[in-house]
Specification:
single chain, mainly alpha, Lysozyme, 62% helix
Length: 248
């Protein structure tokens, strides 16, 4: 009996092992089936998307094949043609100068006061100062010329500095500085009014280098002639009105 029981135990163990293997195999198979189902379920939408992309690509290729070929573009096709003058496209290198606003001429009593004070300070005839002032600025203290001369008697910046004019638009400073400059020129040219006026307008170097004494430029010739004519007319008017003409 004991030997019989000993022989039966190995059989029982083998059966248990076989059953365990069966259970494991069944479980693995079930898992594989589930994985295949998942893969199949996932791959189905991907296949649909792939087919949709193929249809879109075919549609695009079809549209491109129906579009007429375009002519190759040349370099000029990328540059808009210029219309107008070059100044419309190129800004000037020098910024525009902002000139002072226009101003009315001084009143006659203000002019008389400035002229008499300057004439007394420099021993220059008041009618000459008035004539130069009128010719230069028309009695407007804010005038600036295209060349940069400023104020009543149109002093250039270097001339203003030479005669201690700190504000060329101040009527009194300008009148005193301009008269001092005129007196200096009258002394230089020994009271030759034509040469002094020519130098006031064109500069002493221009007068010194001119063959005839007066620069042969239309501006300077007209400038001197206009002032001399004004002085002569003022002398004539003074004589006709009974005033005793002042010595020149």
């Amino acid at each position: 009996m004991e030997s019989s029981h000993k022989l039966l135990k190995p059989k029982t163990s083998i059966l248990a092992i076989a059953f365990g293997v069966f259970v494991i195999a069944t479980t693995v198979t079930a898992r594989q089936v589930k994985e295949e189902e998942k893969t199949s379920a996932t791959s189905a939408p991907l296949e649909v998307q792939r087919k949709s992309l193929l249809l879109q690509q075919n549609s695009v290729h079809g549209q491109l094949s129906q579009t007429p070929a375009r002519k190759p573009m040349l370099p000029d096709d990328f540059i808009a043609p210029m219309t107008g003058s070059p100044d419309d496209f190129i800004s000037p290198l020098i910024p525009p100068v902002s000139l002072p606003p226009d101003c009315p001429p001084l009143k006659s009593e203000e002019i008389a006061m400035l002229v008499n004070e300057a004439a007394s300070a420099q021993q220059v005839k008041p009618e000459l100062i008035r004539a130069v002032m009128k010719q230069e600025s028309g009695f407007k203290p804010c005038v600036v010329s295209p060349k940069g001369a400023e104020g009543l008697m149109q002093l250039m910046p270097e001339t203003a500095r030479a005669f201690n004019v700190s504000d060329p638009f101040d009527p009194k400073q300008n009148a005193l500085g301009g008269t001092a400059f005129l007196k200096q020129l009258m002394t230089k040219y020994k009271d030759d009014l034509k040469l002094a006026l020519g130098a006031y307008n064109a500069g002493a170097n221009a007068v010194d280098n001119a063959a005839g004494g007066l620069p042969d430029t239309t501006e300077t010739q007209n400038y001197v002639s206009s002032i001399l004519a004004g002085l002569e007319a003022e002398k004539t008017n003074s004589t006709s009105s009974g005033e005793v003409p002042k010595k020149q």
